[in-house]
Amino acid sequence: MKNFIIFGSPGAGKGTQAELLAKKYNLAHLSSGAILRNALQNGLISDNTNKYLKAGNLVPEKTIINLMTETIGRQKKNQGLIFDGFPRTLNQAEKLDEILKEKNLTISKVLEIKINEKEGTKRILERAKTSGRNDDNKKILNNRFRVYRQEMTPIKNYYRTQKKLVSIDGCRTVEEIFQNLSAEIEKNI
Ligand code: AMP
Description:
Layout: E1 3-8, H1 14-25, E2 27-31, H2 32-41, H3 50-55, H4 61-73, E3 80-84, H5 90-102, E4 109-114, H6 117-131, H7 138-161, E5 165-169, H8 174-186
Parallel strand pairs: 1-3, 1-4, 2-3, 4-5
Helix pairs in contact: 1-8, 2-4, 4-5
The structure holds adenosine monophosphate.
């Protein structure tokens, strides 16, 4: 089975596109943010973790790696995966490769959606009206962008060296981006 990562700054449209791609290609959509929020709601991880989400900082490596390892372990064997929001650090990228290797799996492609921060901010502030997420506000968003800027280069280099990174322009309509990403997925399935 083929596995993909969707990668991009806050507001790039990762969640929207991952959901559409998951439906079209029968992939399991693993959103680390949603998995974390759900684990918090169900008391599966310490309440303390919430302070990282609220501030727009990355949760401790151990927390997210354990959660993702567990989640990957629960997936059907014959279904491909699309990761959204994970990995966020070089360490997570390396760990993900180890987890997949144990199952004889690998990442086929990393799909980066590129947008500028101005557009990302506009989209997140629009989403804030309905998302109910307490990290969708201007102050926290600036921190989320800062964290992204810090972590993205090592991750991109990691996948670029493996010739797995594809970058597409995210400043277009959902449909146009979806067509573009679909074409990339089809080259790999
Ligand atoms: P997201 O829904 O992807 O925007 O993630 C929301 C928040 O969850 C982030 O700001 C982090 O606090 C946390 N989070 C999500 N994914 C990760 C990850 N891979 N590593 C660490 N923290 C994460």
